[in-house]
Design a protein that fits this description.
alpha/beta, Rossmann fold, 5 strands, 11% strand
């Protein structure tokens, strides 16, 4: 199970053992699903950076499940939503070309509101569009119930605390567990 993402996935500011991919691995183990989790999160990375490393990552160990979290840094930098969508689609399509084909999960992000309504709407539409086009399971917003909650975020207001990562893991698990239950691990 590969988690490809940004600092949110890497676990910026917390012990890697409490970052949401590690929490998911423990949840999967407890539920009887035996997957090794690869945390391929890189702090500060844009969707273009994630795309650049995707082929290399897949050559190291093709995932049975890919959970893609990217775009937050694109939004913080005001990068074009069209470019974000092209990068997300390219990553998911590259994954879909692997044999065996991994199950795909796409975690949506939100753009900062200071970039205006048009930008925010275009950014938000990237994730359901990409999921629809690739058949990926969509998590509408990775940080649902966590973003904006002071007690669940580090002082920077962006990165989750250990409790925030536990909440993120519950959000991801809601989308991931049905995939695990429907098909045994490979």
């Amino acid at each position: 199970m590969m988690f490809l993402g940004t600092s949110l996935t890497a676990g910026y500011g917390v012990d890697p053992a409490v970052a949401y991919p590690a929490v998911i691995e423990r949840m999967a183990d407890s539920a009887g699903y035996r997957y090794r989790v690869v945390n391929a999160g890189v702090s500060g990375e844009t969707s273009a950076g994630a795309l650049r490393r995707t082929e290399w990552l897949f050559q190291q160990e093709p995932p049975a499940i890919l959970i893609l979290e990217t775009g937050g840094n694109d939004g913080l930098r005001g990068l074009a939503p069209d470019s974000l969508e092209a990068n997300v689609l390219a990553i998911l399509e590259l994954a879909a070309s692997l044999s065996p084909t991994p199950r795909l999960v796409l975690a949506g992000m939100e753009a900062p509101p200071n970039l205006g309504g048009s930008y925010t709407d275009r950014f938000r539409a990237v994730y359901p569009n990409a999921a629809s086009r690739t058949g990926a399971t969509l998590i509408p917003f990775l940080l649902a119930g966590v973003a904006g909650v002071d007690s669940l975020n580090l002082p920077d207001g962006i990165h989750p605390t250990a409790a925030g990562h536990a909440a993120v893991a519950r959000t991801v698990w809601q989308a991931l567990e049905p995939l695990l239950a429907a098909q045994p691990e490979e």
